[in-house]
Specification:
Blueprint lengths: L1 E3 L7 H13 L3 E2 L3 E4 L2 E3 L2 E2 L3 H10 L7 E3 L10 E5 L9 H9 L2 H12 L5 H10 L7 H9 L7 H10 L3 E9 H11 L3 E10 L2 E7 L5 H15 L6 E5 L5 H6 L2 E5 L3 H6 L2 E3 L6 H4 L11
Parallel strand pairs: 7-8, 7-11, 8-9, 11-12, 12-13
Antiparallel strand pairs: 1-4, 1-6, 2-5, 3-4, 9-10
Length: 292
């Protein structure tokens, strides 16, 4: 089991409390293994992984600590598949475009409902894009420059995994304009996303088919596995919204990152507070191995 803090280092007391929590639940524990000042591995046996993470977290009453429990074998993954909006970058690009178009409140309301799984993603996406009709193409560059910065740990996650032989792909129910740029910034091997239809330098309010939604994300993962000759157990996927659930469920380790409750319920692991380097620690990477 990994425990990680977002910025401040873990203390020996934190780890001691986690060990006590595991033992109280009936687990036997091994010696803590410090991967970094803010991440520690605690070997255990005797209780299910998901229950172990919840047991440890309950002892800290909402403190900024993340716990992920998993089998020790096969921790290092050979494929990373990551969602774009609100995962690799902090913003929902469609919401940022909507602000420039003066329809921010209307689009944000649809986005929030879609992320919670209350309405069909493709329908919600089409409805939101329709509200952007007439927006100048230059708005895309403005959002990319001023709003779409990488989340802390994003580049380290991608570059570290690639340096150790993994393949990294970025997928988005958003737009190729942003996916292509962010993939280059973070060092992904490839990307896939939806393509906005343009005419006379403006958005038409439509997307070019085929449209990429939850099932297409899942299918992209399966396509990558087949192309690379990998098993699903060799993959780690990360996302935040309801449309990421099929992808997360199909991966060897699906991580809900600062995610909606619906997504957290579907994922094997949850990161609420730590940066994206947590996805390296959970694979057993040590601080000295991480590309800064």
């Amino acid at each position: 089991m990994i425990g990680a803090r977002p910025e401040a280092g873990l203390s020996a007391e934190d780890v001691g409390v986690a060990v006590m929590a595991l033992r109280a639940a009936g687990a036997t524990t091994g010696a803590p293994d410090w991967l970094a000042p803010r991440a520690c591995d605690v070997p255990f046996a005797g209780i299910p992984p998901r229950g172990a993470a919840a047991q440890a977290a309950a002892y800290f009453q909402g403190a900024p600590l993340d716990f992920i429990a998993q089998p020790a074998a096969g921790r290092r993954k050979r494929l990373l598949l990551a969602d774009l909006d609100s995962t690799i970058i902090a913003v929902e690009c469609i919401d940022a475009l909507a602000d420039l178009a003066g329809v921010g409140a209307a689009v944000a309301a649809i986005t929030a409902r879609a992320m919670r799984g209350e309405i069909d993603f493709i329908t919600a996406l089409s409805d939101r894009v329709a509200l952007l009709a007439g927006l100048p193409v230059t708005a895309l560059a403005r959002v990319l420059k001023h709003r779409a910065g990488l989340r802390p740990g994003a580049r380290a996650l991608v570059e570290t995994m690639r340096r150790h032989g993994a393949y990294a792909a970025l997928v988005s129910g958003g737009f190729t304009y942003f996916a292509e740029a962010v993939a280059a910034m973070a060092g992904f091997d490839e990307f896939r996303a939806n393509r906005l239809e343009l005419a006379d330098g403006r958005l038409t309010g439509r997307l070019e088919p085929p449209l990429l939604g939850p099932e297409a994300k899942h299918d992209y993962l399966i396509e990558l596995l087949t192309r690379l000759g990998l098993a699903s157990a060799e993959t780690i996927a990360v996302g935040d919204g309801a449309n990421d659930r099929p992808m997360l469920a199909a991966a060897g380790l699906g991580v809900a990152y600062r995610a909606t409750p619906l997504t957290i319920a579907a994922a094997a692991a949850t990161v609420r507070d730590a940066d994206l380097c947590a996805l390296l620690y959970v694979q057993g990477y040590r601080e000295a191995e991480i590309v800064s």
